Amino acid sequence: MYPVIRVKNRKETLVQKCKSLTCGDRVEFLTFPKLSAIEGIEHMFTTRLGGVSKGDCATLNFSFTRGDDPEAVLENYARMGEILGVEKGAFVATDQTHTTNIRVVTKEDAGKGVTCTRDYTDIDGLITAEKGLVLSCFTADCVPIYFVDPVKQVIGVAHSGWRGTVAGIGTRMVECMEQEFGCEPANIIAAIGPSICQDCYEISEEVAVQFRQGFWEEEKIAGYCSETFETGIHPTGKLLVPGKEAGKYQLDLWLANIIVLRSAGVLLENIEVTDICTNCNPEYLFSHRASGGKRGNLAAFLVMK
Ligand SMILES: [Zn+2]
User: Fold this and answer.
1) CA–CA dist 103, 94 (Å, integer)
2) Is 239 inside any structural domain?
3) For 23-81, how does the pLDDT look when each residue is reduced to its tens digit (9 = 90+)?
4) Containing H/E element for 35?
5) How many domains, the chain?
6) Alpha carbons 156 and 160: distance in angstroms, whole number
7) How remote is the CA of residue 192 from the centroid of ligand 1, in Å?
8) How far is the CA of 128 from the centre of ligand 1 (A)?
9) Which residues span the domain enclosing 142?
10) Distance from the CA of 105 to the center of ligand 1, in angstroms?
11) pLDDT digit string (tens) for 123-178?
């Protein structure tokens, strides 16, 4: 098993797994215990290990837009399909442009963005109530979020970079699950996947200002921050801390997304948060910052069987 640097003073959450493929290669991926415990759900967060891509995208890249050989990307999907028990035509992909747009997908959408072209653009979140469809979103420092309502049998994935986070895509996802499928926020299990940690994520004053405005009501935030600190989920409960340089800040995207989910009514005990940072582990996970932009994309996959 590849050694991983975990962020200190966080509750350890992600489980590293390793599986052999029929071709003989071994694939490493990460899972969340709270999602693994739900019957009929398969999920994974991929690593760089176990694919066929070369160069900057080595080896397990899931994007067709990073200069990788499309045949290699398709083989990578087929490999993950083998583990998830689906064909590569069962995956459906976002079209990520840092929006809060969400698409409810059905079996008509199977393969879109992977084995066939998409007939939609600017979609950062996917939701479905259909079995056998693998919802897929892509990251390399940005935050992937998984959503499962085991009561209504509805699942979702979202890409939440700082723009999506400050605009509350996590809240939009919960609202969409409520409106389209009658889900209760209190039943939703959510998982915040591997992405950049607070210590690695420096932002400008311009970005910091946006996190102090808008729907980010100070009092509510303070409440959510202190509960994460008191329950030991977060070491300090601080969303923004002074940066290493004057005028800069360190933003905690993980805590920010906890706040987004809490404000949508998701219970704290139903939220699982990564303790693995992409930028701290650039050999194991693709990181935009660590690679200077020369990298492939990791994937968050979620399917109901
Ligand atoms: Zn880090």
Assistant:
1) 9
2) no
3) 999 999 999 999 999 999 999 999 999 999 999 999 999 999 999 999 999 999 999 99
4) helix 33-36
5) 1
6) 13
7) 15
8) 32
9) 15-196+253-304
10) 34
11) 999 999 999 999 999 999 999 999 999 999 999 999 999 999 999 999 999 999 99
